[in-house]
Design brief:
Blueprint: H1 3-32, H2 40-65, H3 72-101, H4 105-127, H5 134-146, H6 152-178
Helix pairs in contact: 1-2, 1-3, 2-6, 3-6, 4-5
């Protein structure tokens, strides 16, 4: 491995740590919202931070390490690599959290989701104006009750694969923005 490749790889691994910390915070907020619905208002703004952070990290890589010499496919590849490193850290946290820190957490989350759906169902039934949504809501509750609870390793692997798919798709527009555009030389 040449020295520039080593420097880029070290930079990506170093930047993956704060990105993984952000993913872990998102995970904790997402699952805390089952007990406090107000936290659901934070989910969408938190999701918007990820693409901005990826753009900023790759822009910094382009400017400070690669000295503006980056193509779109390189930016895409570096972004996917960065997300992979961060997702590995997050998946490890999710496994440890659900296996050792809060072992019954996944069962509790499923019960909380079912309770929330049942509360929505009762509220809509009491209002009497949303009769057309009741069959679908009943199907969702039934599906949640019958769904198997994922094990901690399945949850971690699902999160890892979801993040990798997201990174492959999300990095396309970010790479197009980050890439160095060729300089247009003016005719003399």
């Amino acid at each position: 491995m040449n020295s520039l490749a080593t420097i880029v790889n070290n930079y990506l691994m170093k930047m993956a740590v704060p990105l993984a910390a952000w993913f872990i915070l998102e995970y904790l907020v997402k699952y805390a919202m089952y007990s406090n619905v107000v936290l659901s208002l934070l989910i969408f703004p938190m999701m918007l931070v990820t693409p901005v952070a990826l753009w900023w990290i790759l822009r910094k890589l382009r400017r400070e390490i690669l000295y503006d010499a980056i193509r779109g496919i390189q930016a895409w590849s570096f972004g996917v690599q960065l997300m992979f490193y961060a997702s590995l850290i997050e998946a490890l946290f999710i496994y440890v959290y659900n296996q050792y820190i809060k072992p019954g957490n996944l069962h509790t989350l499923q019960k909380a989701a079912i309770e929330q759906y049942e509360n929505v169902q009762q509220t809509l039934a009491a209002s009497g104006s949303f009769e057309r949504y009741m069959p679908r809501l009943e199907e969702a509750i039934k599906a949640l009750k019958e769904a198997p609870v994922l094990t901690p390793i399945e949850t971690a692997m699902t999160t890892l694969s979801n993040n990798l798919f997201l990174s492959i798709v999300l990095m396309i527009p970010i790479a197009l923005i980050v890439r160095k555009r060729p300089q247009v030389s003016s005719p003399s």
